[in-house]
């Protein structure tokens, strides 16, 4: 096949075929394509397995006549082709229950990856992957095939009737002098259940509100079972086409993907997401098993792409967001930061071939970078996954405003072996908090606005040249200085209420004499570290300092009561030991009497679990360890940290890095990146002096 051409397939009715149809193919240049539809689907079962036995063997293959021979296709594709052949063969009046798809008369062209690409030819696969973005943007329609099972009447009602009605009110149409802003305020106040709320009933009618309450679980449960939402290639297949061109097809039923996207976006704008997510996790096992389903229904990638299409640069909204998220300022930095963000987002999706975690986003990369910047990676299925991931990291480091990308790398459990430590593993999902601390601070919705962490003041005065260079295929060379070493490490565990459980080290740290390095109490330093300096909006600013110190005492008291007698968690013994060994007249962080007084209060345990600071700490700390340095600082580091690891400040790195020195034959200093670290008291450039910067020297990471 010529390099800039693709195959399109026709579904031909055939009385002699056992399936009722045959396939015919034609090749067309990309620059002169006829009208066609593209298919987006899953190669195996369309649904995640349930306890109910599935009579269909979704792993089976079938021979389909294609004129010059036969093709082997999977069961799910066979179901789509059979359904489409049936629809095209019937007159519109034969399907009164469903509006017929507007299909031209046969022959009509489709693009389907499994049959339009020779999957046995690596060279052709490589060539065609380059065209995927162009194909889905050129398609007159993209059919997202969710399988032959039709949605329930409840799910269909939500998409076709309830969602459009809500969106009409929340999207600008007035209703009895109720503005869009007022409608959103009413829906936000009513909550996702629209329970006994006069304002919502006035807008929608009580019958509609009741019907939504009864049917919303069925709507979300239907999508939670669909593998299509978790398939990695789907992200660009559903994001690149023009709005309205993607249609969901379930058997003979067709639903608007745009309506689903817009309704999920409304759920976020009305503030329903957290409560709804919790309710669905409790009611729907499939929802609980696949976190992030609501965001997938929103399809944020598609929502952001139009911002990158303007000739005058990216949209202001996205530019502000990228400046906050990645410190990106210039058009070049903003666009490359968005590429990195999307590659990181794809960790939550499924790919059969790990290489496609890069190649499955090339269409998005081209759209984001526009005509000004070239995509710095080309699809090659004859290279190792490690080489492909390393190539992407080396490319992006040359265009990003700082080294925040390294916060996505490091020695995480389950990471791909053989991958350089400074290269993000785009196949590793990791724990909930497996992202950079900068991002974790932004993801917490109930925190006050804040300045990004910037321990080296990398954001001051703009970018001065490249911060990093590669040396050979696996080495990264930075410039920096070691400022401290890890002396102690503490696991961070939480009990069933979400309260920090192992706090004996907190007692020891808070009982130190004097004050912390930045002239605050040791208790304040500990809590600020555990929360990554996120300040909950629920606590007034003038009460925050007192609140965090009280939280430290309450956390110790809670653990004294909850875990007494459990050897690994018994903090009461530690408290007694500190009291017995303290110098006469010295004021302790807290005493046994303080514990008794705290736990005697009604509802103390429930109050501790509901405390805003408890929620912040529970959000920030999973997948991390608390650490103390040999200079007496307290920090938050990766779970893979060890005593003796070195804390480095590096040029261009807004976050301090935790490095581990390797022994080499030639005694040269070579390090692996363990991860980034929050070290309280230096996160806003307090340590950066001209003298320290003059001591920066090359450091090599492998």
From TrEMBL:
Pfam families: HET, Het-6_barrel. Residues 37-237 form the Heterokaryon incompatibility domain. This is Heterokaryon incompatibility protein 6, OR allele. It comes from Colletotrichum spinosum.
């Amino acid at each position: 096949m010529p390099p800039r051409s693709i195959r399109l397939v026709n579904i031909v009715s055939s009385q002699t075929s056992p399936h009722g149809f045959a396939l015919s193919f034609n090749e067309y240049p990309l620059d002169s394509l006829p009208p066609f539809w593209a298919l987006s689907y899953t190669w195996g079962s369309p649904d995640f397995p349930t306890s109910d036995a599935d009579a269909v063997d979704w792993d089976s293959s079938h021979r389909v006549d294609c004129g010059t021979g036969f093709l082997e296709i999977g069961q799910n594709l066979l179901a789509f082709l059979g359904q489409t052949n049936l629809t095209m063969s019937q007159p519109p009046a034969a399907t009164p229950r469903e509006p017929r798809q507007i299909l031209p008369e046969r022959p009509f062209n489709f693009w389907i990856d499994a049959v339009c690409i020779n999957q046995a030819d690596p060279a052709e696969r490589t060539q065609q992957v380059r065209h995927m973005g162009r194909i889905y943007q050129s398609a007159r329609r993209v059919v997202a095939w969710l399988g032959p099972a039709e949605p329930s009447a409840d799910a269909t009602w939500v998409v076709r009737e309830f969602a459009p009605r809500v969106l009409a009110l929340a999207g600008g149409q007035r209703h009895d002098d109720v503005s869009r802003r007022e409608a959103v305020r009413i829906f936000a106040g009513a909550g996702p259940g629209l329970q006994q709320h006069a304002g919502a009933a006035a807008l929608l009618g009580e019958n509609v509100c009741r019907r939504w309450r009864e049917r919303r679980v069925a709507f979300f449960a239907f999508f939670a079972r669909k593998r299509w939402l978790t398939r990695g290639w789907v992200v660009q297949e559903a994001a690149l086409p023009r709005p309205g061109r993607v249609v969901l097809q379930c058997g003979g039923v067709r639903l608007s993907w745009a309506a689903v996207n817009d309704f999920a976006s409304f759920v976020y704008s009305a503030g329903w997401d957290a409560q709804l997510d919790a309710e669905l996790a409790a009611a729907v096992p499939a929802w609980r098993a696949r976190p992030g389903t609501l965001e997938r229904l929103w399809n944020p990638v598609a929502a952001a792409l139009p911002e990158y299409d303007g000739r005058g640069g990216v949209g202001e909204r996205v530019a502000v967001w990228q400046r906050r998220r990645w410190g990106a300022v210039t058009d070049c930095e903003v666009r490359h930061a968005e590429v990195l963000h999307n590659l990181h987002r794809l960790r939550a999706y499924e790919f059969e071939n790990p290489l496609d975690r890069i190649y499955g986003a090339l269409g998005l990369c081209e759209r984001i970078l526009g005509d000004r910047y070239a995509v710095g990676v080309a699809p090659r299925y004859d290279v190792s996954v490690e080489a492909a991931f390393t190539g992407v990291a080396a490319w992006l480091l040359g265009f990003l405003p700082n080294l925040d990308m390294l916060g996505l790398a490091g020695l995480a459990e389950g990471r791909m072996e053989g991958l350089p430590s400074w290269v993000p593993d785009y196949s590793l999902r990791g724990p909930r908090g497996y992202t950079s601390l900068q991002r974790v601070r932004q993801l917490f919705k109930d925190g006050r606005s804040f300045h990004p962490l910037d321990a080296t003041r990398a954001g001051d005065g703009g970018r001065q040249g490249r911060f990093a260079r590669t040396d050979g295929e696996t080495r990264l060379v930075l410039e920096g200085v070691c400022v401290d070493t890890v002396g102690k490490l503490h696991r961070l565990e939480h009990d069933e209420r979400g309260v920090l459980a192992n706090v004996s080290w907190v007692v020891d740290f808070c009982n130190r004499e004097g004050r912390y390095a930045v002239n605050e109490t040791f208790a304040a330093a500990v809590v600020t570290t555990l929360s990554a300096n996120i300040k909950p909006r629920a606590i007034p600013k003038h009460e925050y300092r007192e609140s965090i110190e009280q939280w430290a005492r309450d956390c110790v008291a809670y653990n004294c009561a909850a875990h007494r007698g459990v050897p690994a968690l018994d903090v009461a013994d530690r408290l007694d030991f500190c009291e017995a060994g303290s110098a006469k007249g010295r004021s302790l962080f807290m005493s046994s009497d303080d514990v008794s007084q705290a736990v005697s209060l009604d509802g103390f345990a429930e109050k501790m679990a509901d405390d805003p600071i408890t929620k912040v700490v529970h959000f920030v700390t999973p997948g991390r360890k608390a650490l103390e340095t040999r200079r007496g600082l307290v920090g938050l580091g990766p779970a893979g940290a060890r005593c003796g690891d070195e804390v480095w400040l590096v040029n261009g790195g807004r976050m301090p890095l935790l490095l581990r020195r390797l022994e080499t034959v030639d005694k040269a200093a070579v390090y692996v990146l363990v991860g980034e670290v929050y070290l309280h008291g230096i996160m806003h450039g307090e340590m950066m002096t001209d003298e320290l910067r003059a001591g920066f020297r090359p450091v090599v990471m492998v």
